Amino acid sequence: MDLNTKLLDLLNKSIYTKDAFSLVELGADPNILNASGYSLLHLLIFNKHMTEAFQLVEHYKANINIKDKYGFTPLYYMLNENYSIDSLFNMIKLGANPNVRNKSGTAPIHLFIRSKFIYALELIKIHPESIHYTSNEGTPIQLMMNLRHSQPFTADNYIVMVRNGADPDSVDRNNTSLLEIILKMDKPERSSELVALSKISPRERKLFTPDLIDYLINKEGVLQLVNDLQQDKICKQHISLLARYPHAKEMVIKCIKSLDVDAQETILRECLSSNSSLNQFFSVQRGWFMTSTSRGTLAQLTKMQHELIDNKIRESKTINDVPEDDELILYYKA
């Protein structure tokens, strides 16, 4: 018994019946095309039988990205026929390729930006490349910027897009930059976060969660970073990530220099101690050359320590209390 022929007869009538599902359940191929070049899934979509369409994909393993004779997938027709946002999102969750556009050049992510922003974020999690899809209104973040007067987005909405790979230098149709838009929101901390994220490669931005970025956007944050490194509160993975941030080591050194002499002595000793988190931070390789106490920031720290010792010697001489040689040797070794 040729089940495919029987199913094809039904599909050629372009009318959905439960008999089609019965044949598929018995073993007929759910992906065959009728004489007009459409699959059963296409026909279900055309007739808005979404429950059956989802069932066909989930339970009978129909190819959700099957193309008709014109090269169009079911999702393409859903985009053109203004199907609900929920239906579009469910199709994508089931495996539909979101890199498809309707006749106006709009991809699913652009519709989600307009109608249900949370779906846009969920789509980016599943398909990170969606952040770069363009329409006649630009990239998703440019669409957000263009819509901001009729559909206001928060500074955090913009930041999460940048963290997921959107261009931080994006401009809207009037050439207004993203930084200008966030500055006008009177959100200085988000403006600082945008600038900080712009210095990180798109690949690593997602790893810089808000709590990590907070270490790097102001003096208080850098001081907190030093304190947390002293107390071993930061895991090795995050230490490495923070140390590779542009000029992070230099920022920490500047912070150390701003402290009183006693605090500097303690921190410098830890920085040059091989088993400390501070030393791990400064030992992270940033360029082509391995880190070494003879160059780079570790050399700076060593020089700072020596200068503190020299100052201590000079001060001691002025009060006729020069430290013993053995004491100085122990200090240098520490």
What does this 3D model show about the protein?
- This is Ankyrin repeat protein.
- It comes from Legionella quateirensis.
- The chain has 334 residues and is mostly helical.
- It folds into 3 domains: 1-97, Ankyrin repeat-containing domain (Serine Threonine Protein Phosphatase 5, Tetratricopeptide repeat), CATH 1.25.40; 105-203, Alpha Horseshoe (Serine Threonine Protein Phosphatase 5, Tetratricopeptide repeat), CATH 1.25.40.20; 219-284 and 299-333, no CATH class.
- The protein has helices spanning 3-12, 18-26, 40-46, 50-60, 74-80, 85-93, 108-115, 117-126, 140-147, 155-163, 178-184, 188-198, 202-205, 210-213, 219-230, 236-244, 248-257, 261-271, 277-283, 296-318, 325-333.
- Helix 1 (3-12) packs antiparallel against helix 2 (18-26) and helix 7 (108-115) runs parallel beside helix 9 (140-147).
- The termini are far apart.
